[in-house]
Amino acid sequence: MKIALINVSGQLSLDGSRLISALLKRGGHHVWSVFLARKVPLHYHDDELAPLHDLLRQVDLVLLAIYSTYAIRAVQITQFIHRHYPGLLVIWGGPHCISAPELGLQYADGVCFSEGDEAVLDFVDRLEAGADYLSTPNMAFKTNGSHIVNKSLPPFTDLDSLPYYDYGLEDHFLLDHGLFPITKKILKERHAGYPYYTPMLYFLTSRGCPHRCSYCNNSRYIQVFGHNTIRFHTVDRIIDELVHTLEHFDFFQLVGFGDDDFFARPTKQIEDFARQYKKKIGLPFGIAVSANTFKKEKMEVLLASGLRVIQMGVQSGSQRMLDQVYNRKISVQKTKEAVQAIQPFLKKTGLDLLLDFIVDSPYETKADIAQTYRYLLDLPLNVGINLFFLAFFPGTPIYERALRDGIIEPFNENTFRLYTRGPVRYQKNYEMVLVLFVKYLRQHPGMLRFVPRFMLRFLGSGFMCAVASMFPKSFYSLISKTFLRKKST
Fold first, then answer.
1. To the nearest 5 percent, what fractions of the chain are helix, strand and coil?
2. Could you tell me if 75 and 15 are in contact, meaning their C-beta atoms sit under 8 angstroms apart?
3. Which domains does the chain have, with CATH numbers?
4. Using one digit for the tens of pLDDT, what is the confidence trace for 181-234?
5. Which of 141, 300, 302, 381 could form an SS bridge with 110, CB 3.0 to 4.6 Å?
6. CA 212, 216, 221, 223 torsion-angle sign
7. pTM across the whole model
8. Which residues contact 284 (CB under 8 A, 6 or more apart)?
9. Rounded distance, CA 195 to CA 284, Å?
């Protein structure tokens, strides 16, 4: 079968669409992959989609890989295809659809609402054979004005049986002011992102997370499966695929492991990974960890094999926000202890530590924001800070809560904002400006000479917060925009 696989994400990183492409190709199908890899503007107008006509005339099926931030693009493309090619099936999948098929079925002919490792190939094979595809597990369909939502399969466990992610250049295209074949040059340029803006290969070695945070994609899978599950690739398989990919694309200078918590692996696997990675790969790499699983011994093993970046979620300086809003079972004190343990290695080894915070939540009080401000003030200057704006992803507990509270609508392009940049939506107040201000100062350390620490603490005092509360929201909205001219990350 001839298939157009369109990824609406704003970047060319590793994600599930490359795996789906590899699965379909292994199954004997012809796949053209199209990436809409630009971050802004979100909208693609009809004249920008027009270059797709030559491809769409050839295919039997269109699959869309969707992240909620870019969901409005999926709507535009789906409507474009239905308008020009009535009868051509458009199927949605990806993080936006997990556990929430009803959103996609407003527009698409079908949705993969759980893992696609088995479901997508099963569906395509049934469709090609003229068999009953409407009963495909893990998928939902719109037919005769009604919805069919099929059973969910158990979590896919044999990760090593999956093909390598499809990084082949043949029949891969970039749609950005024209439709262009993807070349090594384009791959290199589009993979040079944060934090070093050098070409970085993202790679997943596991699925799942030990946490159940209310804002995270993993909570969607827990809803589908009924329980939390973590699955790992074996170390041998990880190294083999990395060797294979890096042999074809030798321009990558850094590997970013996208696992939610790399330290969830047992110590023996960490040691085996470190030994093989140092011997066969050798590139600097970054990982994400949580304070609950952090162990200095694991970090030291990885430092000897090339660990360059640790990213850790703090999310809020307010324990109330972590417990009652984010369902993040990690104490504020625990994250401080982890930072304290990591900090001596930053100068000694060249390690970088990046801490993630979620800001601009409608559920924060001014006191919550002030606690995050004080947390930021206490951090050493050589610790990096990422500020992410709270985004409500369909199927997550916090999304459902915000729906009930009337904060968001079920599907609205304003709901799915870019979580890495503003404007501030909910917290147009002095305390939010303080958080943005301290982030701005850390991006411009030379300015700290003119703003001593005691002054920053005075700015966050109860007296100053009380005085500042007399100013209108419009005033703080304007100031926030000043500090948000640079990317929040």
1. 40, 15, 40
2. no
3. 2-159 (3.40.50.280), 192-483 (3.80.30.20)
4. 999 999 999 999 888 999 999 999 999 999 999 999 889 898 899 888 899 999
5. 141
6. positive
7. 0.93
8. 253, 254, 255, 306, 307, 308, 309
9. 13
